Amino acid sequence: MTQELSPIARIRRTGLPPYAVVVGDPARAATVAALLEGAEEVSYHREYRVFTGSWKGLPVTVASHGVGAPGAVLLFQELADAGIHTVLRFGTAGAMRPGIGDGDLVIAEAAVRDDGVTQQLLPPEYPAVAAPEAVFALQRAAREAGVPHHRGIVWTRAAFQPALIPLDAYDRAGLVAIEMELSALLVTASLRGLVAGGVLVVDGVNADELVDEASPFSAGAYDPHREVVARGVERGAVVSLEALRLLAEGQAG
Ligand SMILES: O=P(O)(O)O[C@H]1O[C@H](CO)[C@@H](O)[C@H]1O
Ligand SMILES: O=c1cc[nH]c(=O)[nH]1
User: In the chain, which end has fewer C-beta atoms inside a 10 angstrom radius, N or C?
Assistant: First the structure.
């Protein structure tokens, strides 16, 4: 007999709204859910906290996936098993280009698959690309909300900071931002036939630049707990939900 809940994230196997926003932080899931009508926490197991509710009449799911792609990919797979077909990751990231300010949004066109898990699932040459309609929906939502935003290729990397091994191969390749889970979502989405994309609030520069030479295993001066980031999160939450609505209404372009 099929169990009612999924094995790892313990999410409902049926009945979740098929349009979803996923975030790393369980507290951010609550922040996004607070914008919904009739928001309800429907499950919370490990780092996977799930809410449902309604955004301007569209039923949505909001779920957290924790830090790191190996754990996140388990949620993405279980969301796909539960019938979710459209997923936007609303995360935080370090900027990798001059001119991108703290609290700005970065809309991902694709991601470098340095995530530490998808290489174990399929060959590394397979691309991690966002659905074009998700990119356009996020861009339109950001533009209409008047939020500063940038577009480009994101570096998804398993290690938050490089410690003793320099990992600077992508520094001069024009990447826009660095984070830890997006490529795992994009690859899962391609394999499972989902529409997926990502929008990230900039919370500083690439953590590589903050590594303390004397203490290379610490996160250095990384500080995502600032007012400018919190304001970016508030704006990004609206942009994510609005982009889902545009996608549902076929108005992404
Ligand atoms: O804020 P979230 O969505 O967790 O995203 C970023 O923040 C975490 C690192 O602090 C990593 O999960 C990274 O991807
Ligand atoms: O994953 C992350 C998030 C913010 N800043 C970084 O450098 N990396």
Answer: N
